[in-house]
């Protein structure tokens, strides 16, 4: 299995860390190198750090329910950067406050440029499958 270089963070307003530690340990258990940038990551700083680190994958976690709104301003920064335009970017967790249409929000975030959108209710399966498929693509 190919080892991915993963950058992990939250959105700018999300101060939660337990989700980042969990994802960091999970990705490491799967054999990947993880740079955990921590919570409350301003989009411009995430862009700068990703340009420095040249990750294979960027993972953005949201716990506070504001992920959907903040993700729509974050992804254009990454996609407009030539070095990161093709880098897979995943967002997941509690992306809304619970009254939104999760399927519609996920579709909108995918259309905006996220490669995978995982809501709390989806569990880890889609994320695990996505990471595994990235490893298989690299091996071909």
Automatic annotation (TrEMBL):
Pfam hit, one: B12-binding
Identification of the protein by name: Cobalamin B12-binding domain-containing protein
InterPro entries associated with the record: Cobalamin-bd, Cobalamin-bd_sf
Signal peptide from the UniProt entry: none
Species this chain originates from: Micromonospora parastrephiae
Domain B12-binding, first and last residues per copy: 3-140
CDD domains named in the record: B12-binding_like (cd02065)
């Amino acid at each position: 299995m190919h080892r991915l270089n993963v950058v992990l963070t939250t959105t700018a307003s999300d101060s939660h860390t337990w989700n980042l530690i969990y994802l960091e340990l999970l990705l490491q258990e799967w054999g990947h190198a993880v740079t955990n940038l921590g919570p409350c990551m301003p989009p411009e700083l995430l862009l700068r750090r990703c340009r420095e680190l040249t990750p294979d994958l960027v993972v953005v976690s949201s716990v506070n329910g504001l992920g959907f709104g903040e993700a729509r301003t974050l992804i254009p920064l990454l996609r407009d950067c030539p070095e990161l335009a093709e880098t897979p970017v995943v967002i997941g967790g509690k992306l809304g406050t619970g009254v939104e249409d999760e399927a519609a929000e996920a579709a909108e975030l995918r259309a905006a440029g996220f490669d995978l959108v995982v809501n709390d209710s989806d569990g880890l399966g889609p994320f695990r499958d996505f990471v595994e498929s990235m490893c298989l693509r690299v091996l071909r």
